[in-house]
Amino acid sequence: MRDLTNWTGCPAPKPVTLEGRYVRIVPYDRAAHLEALWQAFGGLEINARLQYFAQDDFRSIEDFDAWLTGVQKGGWVTEVFYDKTTGDVVGLANYMRPDPANGVVEVGGVAHSFSMARSPLSTEVHYLMAKHVFDDLGYRRYEWKCDNRNEASKKTANRLGFSFEGVFRQHMLSKRANRDTAWFSIIDGEWPVLNAAFEAWLSPENFAGDGTQKRKLEDIRTELSQKETA
Q1: pLDDT in tens, 11-34
Q2: Which pTM value belongs to this model?
Q3: Using CA atoms, how far apart are residues 199 and 147, in angstroms rounded to an integer?
Q4: How would you classify the pairing of strands 104-112 and 141-147?
Q5: Burial of 60 (0-12, 13-18, 19+ CB in 10 A)
Q6: Is 34 helix (H, G, I), strand (E, B) or coil?
Q7: Measured distance CA(143)–CA(103) in Å, rounded
Q8: Cβ partners under 8 Å of residue 171, min gap 6
Q9: Distance CA 164, CA 161 (A)
Q10: Cα(220)–Cα(40) distance, rounded to whole angstroms?
């Protein structure tokens, strides 16, 4: 745990461009990204992709536009993902609820298109966003929260190295119904091992000619953790 005697807080997250091997992350720009995101999520099929988002279902791209505008006015920093191979827009995520004084921020409002499924892109997106928070901005805690019914999100959080902290019952309303929220986090003391595991997993040497992984991220992380404590 770091010495906090002279702690002065962290800068608030701002729109940022982050470059990886497989993905490029850029700040949301309405003119460049609204239509591209709508199409990437399949138009009205977006509601199936975002079934666990708290807002009501979208009836049109105008509803989607209003939601994106509203969350940014509310303090979210929306980032958009480009597949570097195809040049296509393939998803988005947000830095949310920043608490710079305490060094805490959440990643949320995450949406991946079908083309990101089972590809290195989704892992690299979350690696780059976490790395920016810890290495560039100096945060102490990085949060992931989701509807407790969202098994896919909880599985992803665990795979990425977030630690499960519990379920906040009746935490909020989602689509005009109760939502129990599962909380996960990464803290700064855990980041060096997680960072090394991400880098090892994302290395081209970890992928076979057909694109399949040779070693799981979880296995790499476990091996590195054991070496650190040996």
Answers
A1: 999 999 999 999 999 999 999 999
A2: 0.95
A3: 29
A4: parallel
A5: exposed
A6: helix
A7: 11
A8: 179, 180, 181
A9: 9
A10: 32
Shortest CA distance to 76 belongs to which of 98, 101, 92, 44? 98
Reference 157, options 195, 116, 188, 126; nearest CA is 126
Q: How far is CA 75 from each of CA 14, 71, 78, 79, rounded to the nearest angstrom? A: 10, 6, 9, 13
Half-sphere exposure in the Cβ direction for 161 (13 Å, CA): 30
What is the Cα–Cα distance from 24 to 191, expressed in whole angstroms? 22
Residues 71 and 94 sit within 8 Å (Cβ to Cβ): yes
114-167: per-residue pLDDT in tens?
A: 888 778 999 999 999 999 999 999 999 999 999 999 999 999 999 999 999 999
Distances (CA, A) of 210 to 7, 12, 218: 48, 41, 21
d(CA 30, CA 36): 10
* Residues ≥6 apart with Cβ < 8 Å to 81: 23, 24, 25, 89, 90, 91, 92, 93, 112, 116, 121, 125
CA distance 130 to 179: 26
DSSP state letters, 100-146: TTTTEEEEEEEEE-GGGTTSHHHHHHHHHHHHIIIIIS--SEEEEEE
